[in-house]
UniProtKB/TrEMBL annotation:
GO terms for molecular function: ATP binding; ATP hydrolysis activity. InterPro entries: CheY-like_superfamily, P-loop_NTPase, ParA/MinD_ATPase. It comes from Alteraurantiacibacter buctensis. This is Pilus assembly protein CpaE. Gene3D superfamilies: 3.40.50.2300, P-loop containing nucleotide triphosphate hydrolases (3.40.50.300). GO terms for biological process: negative regulation of cell division. Keywords: ATP-binding, Nucleotide-binding. One of its GO terms (cellular component) is cytosol. It comes from the Bacteria. The lineage of its organism: Bacteria, Pseudomonadati, Pseudomonadota, Alphaproteobacteria, Sphingomonadales.
Length: 428
């Protein structure tokens, strides 16, 4: 069932109502409500089920805050709330459970935000101001056509394979050659190079988002993202290496949600550790570009990550990109590599060290600085393939081979090590 608050007209209604279970939370909420110019009497005692009973016989407000603390089945109760809410209502949930899966499910059901208890005045003020802006914003109706969005995650099998170089290049290609508004999200919070490749200062956008996910809204995205050009914006960080990453991942989910509305494309530079810690990041990703090399370690980790993707992101289309392919011999031949992972390599990018140096000197992405390079031609083919996958639901890559497999299948590590290296095939 589609929640009715996701679309619909404005209507004549009260600006705000809340159904909160405990007095402590109500004591924090009422002064903020008065500050917003609303009636504190609309802050009612009682949780989500009380809201359902009340709204079944009265009009729903523009902004509705409901407490899930006493709900045994929040998602089922939210569906009941959807039956009695008028179109256009912005719903903010409050609860005690700090669980990213619940947060994701609530957002998917149509809830605008989820606030954790104990409530704080600043947190409430930000959430209510954002909800007011959302309610007042122009809405797209069914006849307006659906906004198409493509999300592409770039994952390196090993450090140094060039995943970040490819991520920035693809983002630049989507923005300039495909004329798509593009968001580049660099999730290497401490050592990311996305802004560096674009000759930009990273800003505090990503750090602020992680520290206070409730602030993330359309206005936050506009202010926090750093513009590379009219079509390309980046969100990244250079967090102090003495500060560990403290997040449950809710900020990343909220960012992805905002990107889907604000941009045509999202490119996520996704380090392996983030892939493992926050698997929900790939829930809405259409293509996972797995960047690897023709080495034994990369073959092993390609197998492992493909297997992980098959179990955790079955709706995403994997694309295998072998980067920095040298002329002559390699540790593993292309044929042996493909036999080990039981699927074809989709694209081969030849090694071009001079091009990499040139890009660094110019402060430009690899593709922008080296338009005549064979490596850039391969990257351009990859960008075209990502765009193609969006239109044919993965058919162009579906025949690339099976998903992940066991390391003890066709990959015989000792046998490969004992082989004399073969010359690699010409790069695609």
């Amino acid at each position: 069932m589609n929640a009715p608050w996701k679309s619909g007209g404005m209507g004549n209604r009260d600006p705000f109502a809340a159904y909160i279970c405990d007095d402590a939370a109500l004591d924090v909420l009422r002064p903020v409500v008065i500050e917003m110019g609303w009636q504190p009497e609309k802050c009612n005692k009682g949780g989500l089920r009380n809201a359902v009973q009340s709204l079944s016989i009265s009009a729903s407000p523009a902004i509705l805050m409901v407490d899930l603390s006493e709900s045994g089945d929040p998602l089922n109760d939210i569906n009941a709330l959807a039956e009695v809410c008028e179109p256009g209502t912005v719903v903010i949930a409050v609860g005690q459970v700090n669980d990213v899966r619940l947060y994701r499910d609530l957002l998917s059901s149509g809830i605008h935000d989820y606030l954790l208890k104990p409530l704080a005045a600043g947190q409430l003020r930000d959430a209510l101001t954002n909800a007011q802006a959302i309610f007042s914003a122009p809405r797209h109706h069914e006849g307006d056509g659906e906004h198409q969005h493509i999300a592409n995650a770039i994952v390196g099998t090993r450090g140094g394979v060039g995943a970040s170089t490819l991520a920035t290049s693809l983002a630049w290609l989507f923005a300039t050659e495909h004329n798509r508004s593009t968001a580049l999200l660099d999730l290497d919070v401490h050592f990311g190079t996305g802004a560096l490749c674009l000759d930009l200062e990273p800003g505090r956008g990503l750090t602020d988002a992680i520290e206070n996910p409730s602030r993330i809204d359309t206005l936050f995205i506009e202010r926090a993202m750093v513009r590379a050009n009219d079509k390309l914006a980046i969100m990244s960080a250079e967090a102090p290496i003495s500060s560990p990453l403290m997040t449950d991942g809710s900020a990343f989910l909220q960012l992805e949600e905002e990107f889907r509305s604000a941009f045509d494309m999202t490119v996520i530079d996704l380090p392996r550790n983030m892939l493992i810690n926050f698997p929900h990041l790939l829930a809405e990703v259409g293509v996972v570009t797995l960047v690897t090399e023709l080495t034994l370690a990369s073959a092993r980790d390609t197998i492992r990550i493909l297997s992980w993707l098959k179990a955790n992101a079955p709706s995403a289309t994997p694309m295998i990109v072998c980067n920095k392919v040298p002329q002559g011999t390699t540790e593993i031949s292309k044929a042996d590599f493909e036999a080990s992972i039981e699927r074809k390599i989709n694209f081969m990018i030849p090694l071009d060290q001079k091009a990499g140096v040139n890009a660094a000197k110019l402060g430009q992405t690899f593709v922008e600085a080296n338009k005549g390079s064979k490596a850039v031609a391969a990257m351009r083919d990859i960008a075209n393939a990502v765009m193609g996958v969006s239109s044919d639901n993965g058919a162009s890559l579906a025949g690339a081979g099976k998903g992940g497999t066991s390391l003890l299948g066709k990959l015989d590590l000792k046998a490969l090590l004992a082989k004399k290296p073969k010359a690699t095939e010409p790069a695609a």
